[in-house]
Amino acid sequence: xxxxxxxxxxxxxxxxxxxxxxxxxxxxxxxxxxxxxxxxxxxxxxxxxxxxxxxxxxxxxxxxxxxxxxxxxxxxxxxxxxxxxxxxxxxxxxxxxxxxxxxxxxxxxxxxxxxxxxxxxxxxxxxxxxxxxxxxxxxxxxxxxxxxxxxxxxxxxxxxxxxxxxxxxxxxxxxxxxxxxxxxxxxxxxxxxxxxxxxxxxxxxxxxxxxxxxxxxxxxxxxxxxxxxxxxxxxxxxxxxxxxxxxxxxxxxxxxxxxxxxxxxxxxxxxxxxxxxxxxxxxxxxxxxxxxxxxxxxxxxxxxxxxxxxxxxxxxxxxxxxxxxxxxxxxxxxxxxxxxxxxxxxxxxxxxxxxxxxxxxxxxxxxxxxxxxxxxxxxxxxxxxxxxxxxxxxxxxxxxxxxxxxxxxxxxxxxxxxxxxxxxxxxxxxxxxxx
Length: 435
Hints:
- The protein has about 425 residues and is an alpha/beta fold.
- The protein contains 16 helices and 18 strands.
- The strands form four sheets. Strands 14-13-12-11-10-9-8-15-16-17 form a ten-stranded mixed sheet, covered by helices on one side.
- Strand 12, helix 10 and strand 13 form a beta-alpha-beta unit.
- The chain is elongated.
């Protein structure tokens, strides 16, 4: 039986009057093609014999070589070899723990849940901390795992951080686990000399939340008495740098300042030295729905990456996993990580374990940390996902959002992923390695 060929699912950027970029939705390859390639791809949108297309275009010089070129590039394929999208049921392995020591905080930032949920804020008990850390140790037997101390404000319970590291160091000394990595997200207003020495001694990587230059930051990130935090944070950050502590800034864009985000970003890079800067995606606290327009956000993140490139700094953002997928031709089967079976899990103040690093909800949790815990995460894909050009850089819908919100797709996230593809093609120089 003669082979029938069909175009592998693809998306084209550009037009016949300019450079055409073919995005292979299966392999994630970006390929420059000619108008003739485009015409032949359209012929193979429905499965057909190569001989039929050759006959139709017999007057075109070297037509067979062009079709063979399409086959060699993987742009058309034997029908039986085409990949069929699968329903994904994730069972991820834990490679990091985000431990919420307390939900309480000494600040009253405008958009934070701490400001709005005061009556329901929890703090882990010493007994729960000990149990959580001891039960997490077996995860580090053969892999170097990460402990991320989180809040609220984790430095309110610096005593817990010291206790956790004491237990872990003892396990390392006894050969029960590989020495882990330590990280922390903090507002940095509580830094003192003891904490500074501890962070330096244990090589803790510190992420510091700052939302803009002094005027903007101090409208958003304030003490309980209404005072701004910028000057205190800037002074304490300089001490981290003085002690050679690996520190970086985390920005959470505020909807009122989106237009100013590039200027905010540049100012922070000018004031705070770092190798990587994190831009958090604004999410609705209760539903995890994106609260920023997706297409606009894609354009903004690309603009921020150009600015960061001038400073020799990398950007960690919602664009990072899809860009890594494109760079490595690795299809994302799940939305939470580049590789589907490796995640950061969260441990709530009650000791419950969640597969989601963003939200602690009964649906997302198992009763407690256990070395035998298997996390089971079904992802429901909408029909739209099956034909979306961004499906394999996106990884699919957020299962937490689906369960909590009761909707299959977050429109802002979908718009972001599709727009990001277009922005990558239009700004390809940003991703080319310099000599």
